[in-house]
Amino acid sequence: MRGPAADAAVLLGAVDAMAAELGVAVERIDPLHAPAVRAAVRAALPAGQFDLAAHRGRALRRPDVVALLRPYR
Question: What is the pTM (predicted TM-score) of this model?
Answer without folding.
Answer: 0.92
